[in-house]
Structures are given as structure tokens and as C-alpha cells.
Amino acid sequence: MIEEKEFNALSSINLDLTEEQRILLKTVDEMCRKIRPIEDRCYLERRFNDSLKDILSSYHMLGLPISKKYGDGQGADTVTYALALERIGEEGTGVRTFLSVHTSLCQLTIQQWGTEEQKEALLAKGTRGEYIFAFGLTEPNAGSDPASLSTNFEERNGRYVINGQKMWISNGSIADYVIVFAYPKGKREGMCAFIVSKDSPGFEARRIENKMGLPTSDTAAVYLDNVEVPKDMMLGPQGKGLSVAYSALMNGRLSVAAGCVGVIRDCLKEMLNYSSVRVQHGKKIGKHQLVQRHIAKVSAELEASYLLVLKAAYLKQRYVENTSNIQLREEADRMIALAKYYAANASFDAANRAVQVFGANGYSLENRPARHLLDTRVTMIYEGTNEILEQKIAVSLLGKDFEAYR
Ligand SMILES: Cc1cc2nc3c(=O)[nH]c(=O)nc-3n(C[C@H](O)[C@H](O)[C@H](O)COP(=O)(O)OP(=O)(O)OC[C@H]3O[C@@H](n4cnc5c(N)ncnc54)[C@H](O)[C@@H]3O)c2cc1C
């Protein structure tokens, strides 16, 4: 059996982390060990893991990258946050999705675009897990093209009134607030973002069952029937909804990419463990060269994905420190898209190879490779499909004149 020590060295380089960063990542590791048996049970019972909120908040992880000014915000820099998400990703894409949506897609977006009143009211409780957030962009007829959404709002009696439907919303039926995107009624421009309470009359969330994977993650359809939103719950300036959405996706994609690194690392650990003990044709299967090829390939993909995520996180952090620098923003956006595109595909390939190395045992949900295979498939779809990211990456190099649609 290969020692745990060697596993920990997989895809890590000396980043000269501070004592504070090291302690934080050690705490993340401790938390992940606590999550694993519960997540295992929930997965096999195919049910939402409702312990995550309490466990993550007890370890102060729900506000990891949020400013210390708000509630339980830890003020972690982007690289530290990405390293934490990598570790959490090892526990499964469902676990990482819960945190990514709550913190990257929603809380970072509120921190970037919200008024001081919104931040104080929402982030103080969000970082403590007293409020959970969801992100409502996708609709039944608007996915890759969010500009084509049909949810609408109008002003009535000093409030906004929203009508429409959102689809495939992670955390949708457990969230206290959903960030909802809508056009002014009768218009196809001037999109706005709103922070909508689940307690508003006319708001309904219905959990989506029978997903291919991610059974431990909550995904819902959200219905908005004349839902009233107070004036001070618009997020960002009037008409800037698409900019709010794209900035949220930049945060979200980085967290997906980091989670995928964790998936690849976990698959590699599983392959190393299994091929070190399983014997066929009189020798451990790890001695068969074709099995070694799977290990070598996943190891290379792990190193490549890890470095891409680090580069993307580093650029994002530089942008966070210089938000007026448009060039830095574009560079970070491009590298995040690239990291998500690459790591998502690499994680699916890693899970597929891990299943292969496990043989029939790989086909059982009792073992982690099968779960990773089913779960990480979604990372090639949500927060920018492979195809949309391919176009984004190419256009970022060719120039805007080469955009295929607009
Ligand atoms: C488990 C899960 C969780 C999710 N969580 C959330 C969430 O929290 N919030 C949220 O808002 N959404 C969420 N989504 C939705 C997700 O972001 C969308 O599914 C995604 O954006 C793709 O949209 P679509 O499914 O409508 O596919 P479509 O846009 O209909 O695309 C179908 C196919 O056509 C391709 N395609 C589309 N346009 C082009 C083009 N111009 N060029 C080339 N190919 C193209 C796509 O790449 C894809 O292969 C989630 C989805 C899943 C499955």
C-alpha cells in the first residue's frame, strides 16, 4: 500500500504559504474528513446532504473569501480559497457545488455589487449559514444564451413585481434568497438582478429529481408568480443585470475548476490504492503497463489542471486588487474559462479511467470512481458549457470581430 504521505504530495508545489494559510487548509482537511462518511451515506441513499450547512459553518467555511467586515467572513485571498475548494472537491462535486453556489456565485457577487446595507444584512448572516443563497439565471428556454431569458419585472406601488420561471437552480429549494435575473416587462434589454426572498408570496421552488448524478446536491425549478421585491433589493445598477451575471460566473467557474482538480486528485488516489492491492495474472494490477498508462495520464492531467487553476486564481486575485484594470479582468476571465474547460474535461477523463482500473468494482456506486464519473459530468455543462467556453477562449485570442453570435 502506498503511504498517505506520498498522496498528499500529489500536485502540490511550494507556494510559500503563510502560517495562517496553512492552518486554514489544515482545518479544511479536517472538515472534509468529517464530511466524508455522511456524504457517503447520503449518496447511497440518493438524498440531499442536509448536514453540509452546519458542518461548513461550524468550520467557518461559508464566508471563506468574504471580507472579515461581514459576519463570519474569513477574508481568504483567491489562491487560498481555490486550494480549499480543491480539497473540498475531493469529497465530491455535490459538496463543492453547495459551497460554490452559496459563496462564489452569490456572496462574492453581493460583495462586489451590493449596497452597504445589502452587504451588512445579507453577508453577515450568509457567512454564518443563517441564510443560504442560490443563483437563478437559467430558464427552461434560456441556458447558454442568458440574454434570451423571459422572466420579467415591473414597478407597482413602489415595489418590483417579478414573473417567470427559473430552471436547474442549485440550492434552489433550500435557499433563503435567490439572485433572480429579469428584463423590464415588454423589453429585451436593461436586464436587472434582484435578491428575492423565498418567503415572498408567489415564490415556489420544486426539487428536480432523477438527475444523472449529484444526488446529494439540491437542484430546483423556481416559480415566480407576481413576486414582490422591495426597491432596495435590486442588486447592482438598474440595467446592469448581465454584467452582474457574468461577474458571478467568473467567480463560479473558478470554483468549479478548483473542485475538478480535487476530483482528479481523488481519482488518482483511488487508482493508486486499488492497483497497489488488486492482483490479476499473478501480479498487482499496478504492475501491468496498460494500467500504469491510466495512472500516468491522470497524473499528468492533475498537474496541468492544478497549475491552470493556480494561474487563474493568481490573476483573479490581481484583478480583485485592481478592479479598475480592464485588461487584468479580461486576462483573469480568459484564464478562468480555460481552467474550467480543461479541468472539467480532465476530471471526467480521470473518473472514467479510475472506473476502468477498478473493473467491475468501478461500476459500483459503493466506490468513489463511479460517483465521480456521474457527478463531474455536470462540470462540462453548468456555468458555461464546453462549447460556449471554447468559443469564449478562441474569441479572446482572435478578437471580438470573431464572435459567432451577437
Ligand atoms: C445540476 C445542474 C445544476 C445547475 N445549477 C445552476 C444554477 O445554480 N443556476 C443557474 O442559473 N443554472 C444552473 N444550471 C444550468 C446550467 O448553467 C445550464 O444547463 C447551462 O448553462 C446550459 O444551458 P442549457 O442546459 O439550457 O443548454 P443549451 O443552452 O440548450 O445548450 C444545449 C447544447 O447546445 C450547445 N450550444 C448552445 N449554444 C451554442 C452556441 N452558440 N454554439 C455552440 N454550441 C451551443 C451547448 O453547448 C449544449 O451542448 C445547472 C444545471 C445543472 C445540470
Could you please describe the fold and organization of this structure?
It contains eleven helices and ten strands. The strands form two sheets. Strands 1, 2, 3, 4, 5, 6, 7 and 8 form an eight-stranded mixed β-sheet that branches. A two-stranded antiparallel sheet has the order 9-10. Helix 9 runs antiparallel to helix 11. By secondary structure, it is an alpha+beta fold. The protein is globular. 49% of the residues are buried. The chain folds into three domains: 129 residues, Butyryl-Coa Dehydrogenase, subunit A, domain 1 (Orthogonal Bundle); 102 residues, Butyryl-CoA Dehydrogenase, subunit A, domain 2; 162 residues, Up-down Bundle (Butyryl-CoA Dehydrogenase, subunit A, domain 3), CATH 1.20.140.10. The site of flavin-adenine dinucleotide has 21 residues, from strand 1, strand 3 and helix 11.
CATH class of the largest domain: Mainly Alpha
Strand content: 5-15%
- Helix and strand succession? HHHHHHEEEEEEEEHEEHHHH
- The name of the CATH topology of the largest domain is Butyryl-CoA Dehydrogenase, subunit A, domain 3
Helix vs. strand class: alpha+beta
